[in-house]
UniProtKB/TrEMBL annotation:
GO terms for biological process, alphabetical: proteolysis
Domain DJ-1/PfpI as annotated: residue spans: 29-229
InterPro entries, A to Z: Class_I_gatase-like, DJ-1/PfpI, Prot/Nucl_acid_deglycase
Molecular function as annotated in GO: peptidase activity
Alphabetically ordered keywords of this record: Hydrolase, Lyase, Protease, Stress response
Gene3D superfamilies found in the cross-reference section: 3.40.50.880
Family named by the database record: Belongs to the peptidase C56 family. HSP31-like subfamily.
Protein name per UniProt: Intracellular protease/amidase
Key word Lyase present: yes
The species this protein was found in: Agromyces ramosus
Amino acid sequence: MSNILMIVTGATALTMKDGSQHPTGFWAEELVTAHRDLVAAGHTVTIATPGGVTPIVDAGSLEPSQTGGEAQARELAEYLDSITGQLEAAVPIADVEPADYAAIVLPGGHGPMADLAFDANVGRVLVAANEAGTVIAPFCHGPAALLSAKLADGSNAFAGRRLAVFTDEEERTGGTGENTPWWVESALRDAGAVIDPASPWSDHVVVDGNLITGQNPQSSASVARRVIEALS
């Protein structure tokens, strides 16, 4: 089976348009679903964060109103508890050798908007992985990390690629709304990506060569399944 790198945000807050601090982190359902399904398929998952910090769950993502009920919230929290040691042992992205991994998975939450999108080490890993044809699978706000992947000429390594991402419409209607500091979909379009959106909150995955992307939390399991298929 394969070694998979899961790049997770280390951010705990996102500075909003009005200057306020919005508590954030990784989205529980997204990290849990991807990690659980990949491990269940026999793969080894290594978690990496900027600086090797212990990633923090977005508390809002464990609210029953967000998870679909008390039982689901409890299940997510229990799974996160079961991998506490792995989260605390997160590898610094600066130390990552991309060639060691067959796939790179990037779950969301608003955290990637605060760190992964601007992290030169994330960019280095993604550029090298993309050039090697390694599977790269960000979903929901995870594709914000693709913005860090700059080539020597300043262009984005994923310009011209088809992908899915948490849409501006979803952000306005079910995300952080008009106080959002910047729009991930729009930023990726501006960087040259070809956004292939589906209706809001639908399970939607786009595959373009080695790039597997999902639109939102509803797409988490489908992204993990496509990664598993690509590695089989």
